[in-house]
Amino acid sequence: MGTVRFIELTVNGTAHTVAAAPSVTLLQVLRNDLGLNGPKYGCGLGQCGACLVLLDGKAARSCVLPASAAAAHRVTTLEGLARGGELHPVQRAFIEKQGAQCGYCLNGMIMRTVALLEQTGSPSESEIREALNYHLCRCGAHEEILQSVRRAVTLAGAPE
Questions:
Q1: Which of 2, 64, 65, 160 is deepest in the core (most CB within 10 A)?
Q2: Helix (H), strand (E) at residue 7
Q3: What strands, in cross-sheet order, belong to the sheet with 52-55?
Q4: What digits encode the pLDDT tens for the residues 52-93?
């Protein structure tokens, strides 16, 4: 397990100090120590996307990222997207277009969409599909997810 170390993390704009062994992942710290349940444990291999968070605004799979690797970065989870009581435009779009069935993949889909819109203000259909390509949805809500992302582009201020 290794020697426990104190790690300073900035998560959703708040500084936290947590004790964790080097083998502890960011996902474990977020869920177990900080009580943030937006990121999900899916495959544990960084392949399904359910654990996605933003690290300095870029998508990162927290189930394979050591917590210590996030120490010098800003971590944003699903819970940290809303501002001043208002949902993020991507969150609103997924609600409007009912972009989930069971919701397990939802965290990853939303966080990937936020990162995509930050990187590419008005992504093309092929850019949207490529961004979501490595996120697994077992319910078959793919069309609703795509509609949600298209709506998020509009809500975030890019032309439809």
A1: 65
A2: strand 5-11
A3: 14-20, 5-11, 74-76, 52-55, 58-61
A4: 999 999 999 999 999 999 999 999 999 999 999 999 999 999
